[in-house]
Write a structure and sequence with these properties.
The protein has 208 residues and is mainly alpha-helical. The chain contains 9 helices and 3 strands; from the N terminus they run αααββααααααβ.
């Protein structure tokens, strides 16, 4: 069984590689990476209750419809631009099934990190958010906060998202990190994830 090191020394200089691993493993396109796993949707309260209903349970954590829709949205947009009819319907179902699988894997990785009693240095989260404000909002912090507020989210919830993304990226990067061959390394990562699945209680209730 693979047991990735949780030494975060030097992570700041390699964080970009960690997010590259996320995009590769979790089928996330670059435009979705900033908001991976967080539902940035403005919806009525009753509709929000539906969106926050559980689609899957992973040990004691849940995967919600809003999370699935947010992760799937960029790829669904691409599908709508190129496909029609039943082919589009089938593709949307495939994308959402993949999103649920990816979110289950993400949850398992974060749970594994927490089970070791590890704690991510908050400096990494600070640096990540500063980079987002600079790159996505031209350094305008007020515009960034307004963007969050308009969608009913707080800075703290966004910090939680980025913290989890960093944990996932670094954990994936550290699995098989001494293996040069990318294909072999990917096999090691998949074997590690399969082991996490085998030890977990996972139940998928529904797929939209």
């Amino acid at each position: 069984m693979v047991n990735p090191s949780l030494d975060f020394k030097g992570v700041v200089s390699t964080l970009r590689e960690a997010f590259d691993v996320i995009m590769l493993r979790f089928h996330v396109i670059p435009s979705a990476l900033v908001f991976f796993g967080l539902a940035f949707c403005s919806v009525p309260a009753r509709a929000q209750e539906v969106l926050e209903g559980p689609l899957a349970v992973v040990n004691r954590d849940i995967v919600t419809l809003s999370e699935v829709r947010e992760l799937a949205a960029p790829r669904e947009k691409q599908a709508h631009a190129t496909l029609r009819g039943q082919e589009l319907v089938d593709r949307i179902k495939e994308i959402r099934r993949q999103a649920i699988d990816d979110l289950i894997d993400r949850t398992l990785i974060i749970q594994e990190f927490k089970s070791k009693g590890s704690k991510l240095p908050e400096e990494l989260v600070d640096n990540r958010i500063a980079a987002i404000i600079q790159n996505e909002f031209g350094g305008d912090e007020k515009a960034f906060l307004k963007h969050l507020d308009a969608r009913g989210h707080t800075l703290e919830s966004f910090r939680d998202l980025q913290r989890n993304m960093i944990i996932v990226g670094v954990m994936l990067r550290q699995v098989g990190r001494d293996v040069v061959d990318q294909s072999e390394r990917q096999q090691i990562v998949e074997a590690w994830l399969q082991d996490l699945h085998a030890k977990a209680f996972i139940r998928v209730y529904r797929i939209y």
